[in-house]
Design goal:
4-stranded mixed β-sheet; alpha+beta; Arsenical resistance operon transcriptional repressor ArsD; 4 strands; 4 helices; Glutaredoxin
Length: 105
């Protein structure tokens, strides 16, 4: 199972630097750690449009969303390549619900 976060432009790859890190980024980072610990077979990747622009082209759904809506549609989250949320990061509950659905539970 693979979750990918297509991030908007940020100061660094995690968005956790600087004197006042974004609370959303802190929560997302904690959620990623939790998911990696709970689901042993999960792969989680984050891509920043300014550093890995080709990743945004490789997923046709992501590419089409950005082409049609511009960068303001970011962040985009995918599960096994399928877009599951746009405009904001999913909550931990939303991520777990999608994971359980994919696992057939």
């Amino acid at each position: 199972m693979k979750i990918e976060f297509f991030d908007p432009p940020m100061c660094c790859s995690t968005g956790l630097c600087g004197p006042a890190p974004d609370e959303t980024q802190i929560r997302l980072n904690e959620n990623i750690k939790y998911l990696k610990k709970k689901y042993q077979d999960i792969e989680i990747y984050r891509y920043m449009i300014t550093q890995q622009p080709l990743k945004f082209r490789e997923n046709q759904g992501v590419y089409n969303l950005i082409r049609d809506n511009g960068k303001q549609v970011l962040p985009i989250t995918t599960l096994n390549g399928e877009v599951i949320k746009i405009y904001q990061y999913p909550t931990l509950e939303e991520l777990e619900k999608k994971i359980e659905e994919k696992n057939g539970r």
